[in-house]
Amino acid sequence: MRSGVLAAAATFALTGAASAQDLRVTVAEYSSATGPYFEDVARAFEEQHEGANVQIEVVPWDVLLQKLTTDISGGSAPDLSIIGTRWLVDFVNEGIAAPLDEYMDDAFRSRFIEVFLEPSIMDGSTYGLPIAASARAMYYNRALFDEAGLDGPPDTWSELMEDADAISALGDDIAGFGLQGNQIETDVYFYYAFWAYGGELVEEDGTSGLDTEAGYQAAQLYRDLITAGATQPGVTGYSREDVQNLFKQGRVGMMITAPFLSNQIAEEAPDLDYGVAAIPAGPDGDRGTYGVTDSIIMFEGAQDKDVAWDFLDFLFQTEQRAEFTQNEGFLPVNQEVAEMPAFTDNADLAEFTALLPDARFAPVIPGWEEIAAITSNALQRVYLGDQEPKAALDAAASEINAILEN
Amino acid sequence: MRPGRTGSVVPRGLAPIALVLPGFVLAALIILWPVLQLGQISVSEVNRFGQIRGFVGLENYAAVLADPDFLASLLRTGIWTVGIVGGAIVVGLPVAIILHQDFYGRGIARVIVMLPWAVSITMTAIVWRWAMNGESGMLNSGLRGLGVLDTNVTWLAQASTAFPMQILIGILVTVPFTVTILLGGLSSISDDLYEAARLEGASTWQSFRRITVPLMKPFLNIAVVLNTIYVFNSFPIIWATTQGGPANSTDILVTYLYKLGFQFGRLGEASALSLLMFALLLALLVLYVALISRGEADR
Asked: Which residues belong to any copy of the ABC transmembrane type-1 domain (chain B) (predicted)?
């Protein structure tokens, strides 16, 4: 009797393994629309592929890397997953991400806008497909600019400083420049000025570029904005979302952020009179925006790579991409999507796309997250007034150099 | 086997071992096995996905001990633990004594004091994070309304305001559990003792000093030990409010551990740190229990 049960269980387990068309996909939760969107795509894919069974797992951004780490070390990694492209180097070095070139033909490649596919290519192989892309530009509040008697957004950082002063003078509750000083991307908010002053995150000799004149000047600029009262008070308490909230309330004159703020404003503050402009230039005309892509990767341990690829192919068709890009307020990564009227007629997006030639991506370095954290900590000390820009950045640079040497 | 004879299936000397064995096996599975795994990872070179690449001896331990953030977090963990455990006793004891009195509406009062316990700590911390928002927080508008503040304070922008507030939140969420233990203790003290003391002319303060405090000692000790274990490793309050920032200035060991392991991917050092924390907590508790039992032996 008992052996009969065992045999039945064994058969069950075997058939379970045999129907290996199960495809596990981990996706990051960009907004409340992400989960339903991927569920719909999965169901549509299953209709076309008989026997395919796609399981979508939606994970919040904050814990995505932790979850993948745990899954990989426990040997239960999914077949496909969205990751931040800046993490990709670790996945490739450890042989966890599978190269996709054997599946890609020229027609598939040409679906993408070149600049967004590039960050996922390492040592000549493509390890990920850009699922989401964004760049940064400056949002400004037209009503506040009018009230302060200014004719338009500043074109350089020194103009920005004057404009921020003028707007801050409008009232106690109003700040000219919204400065992010807390949580994820605190460092990025600094790079906007750093790049404008001609800085490079990693110098040609492979060391950190923070301890250069560009770094000191950019940090001093932000410090001066804070001491002049041209930013919101207590910047180290403000994450990007907090500053965006102030902007939506009409209490901040300018801030630099990603295109998705337009979607949020349309939903939460439709009456706000705002515009989007380029990030101001430095004294020598340098300008830089931060380009970010997230990639969807295939794991080396994927059960059935062909089905996984079919799903990727399906996901990157124009119809699917257009819906996703519009839902989330990202920049189009597919050529055809970019040419659709919904995107070409969007004035906000046009500003972002115009900045793409100046876009810089996070350097492809193992340990980038830690370098970002060291930079953010140094900046917070400067913003709090605990340390002078030079001292803080020199210390951060020597810590970063120790990581870069490895 | 004949009834009435003292005897058992196992020989006498092995009986205690046989009785302890099931519990030991369970503890070994739940505690010892992960600790052994951690021990293995902590002396290895590990990649960021937890795959072991080689043996490095005590290098990971040396790296942790040499990190200035480790020492700063260690000191802060001390302040954090003593502040919350002490604060919870200081607040919890009077509350427990009041709730032990017979008064109209005591049932409702007890429920209200216990309620925060039913809410997840993470939720409590997130609500406080909103309340402490510099521009739109309830705390600022409340304090301004009362005339305590003239200008808004961005509570979470610097450690000098953020960390004390985090400790206060910690006390708030620790009080219900502490009160529960202390109420149990109070109800175990016989009323006869107080009655006798009153007949002898003892004041309320004298009854408290000479009867309540000595008899409550074992319960206070339980509260201290359990709260210390819990607070020392408490993650959600600090993570949900400041994530240990700005510039690591509100990190305690457990938030620092999380950053090491899951943000920076240095799993070897993170394992070493978590074993150090385990050893430290164990040593502290052994010391505390030893002090208590010596105190009791002296009496």
From this structure: 74-288
pLDDT tens for residues A221-255?
999 999 999 999 989 989 898 999 999 999 999 99
> Chain B neighbours among A 351-370 (CB < 8 Å)?
367, 369-370
| Same-domain check for residues A189 and A223 | yes
Identify all chain B residues contacting A181, using CB atoms and an 8 Å cutoff.
Answer: 157, 246
Domain membership of residue A114 as a residue range = 14-132+293-350
A73-88: average pLDDT:
91
In a domain, A157, yes or no: yes
Chain B interface, best mutation among A384, A393, A398, by max B CB count within 10 A: A384
Closest listed residue to residue A353, CA positions, set A324, A336, A330: A330
Asked if A369 and B264 come within 8 Å (Cβ–Cβ), the reply is yes
**What is the topology classification, in CATH, of domain B68-298?**
MetI-like fold (1.10.3720)
Predicted confidence (pLDDT) per residue in A259-308, tens digit: 889 988 998 999 999 999 999 999 998 888 898 899 999 999 898 899 99
Q: ipTM higher than 0.90?
A: no
Region of residue A29 (left: phi > 0; alpha: psi -120 to 50; beta: else)? beta
**Separation between Cα atoms, residue A334 and residue A131, nearest integer Å:** 10
State the residue for tokens 């092995």: B14
Q: Does position B298 have pLDDT exceeding 90, yes or no?
A: no
Residue A345 lies in a domain: yes
Residues A169 and A236 reside in one and the same domain: yes
Q: How far apart are CA A150 and CA B229, in angstroms?
A: 59
- Give the CATH number, domain containing residue A126: 3.40.190.10
Residue A156 shares a structural domain with residue A267? yes
Domain stops at, among A350, A379, A397: A350
List, for residues B228-246, the tens digit of each pLDDT value: 999 999 999 999 999 887 8
**A396 Cβ neighbours under 8 A, 6+ residues apart:** A208, A210, A211, A374, A375, A377, A378
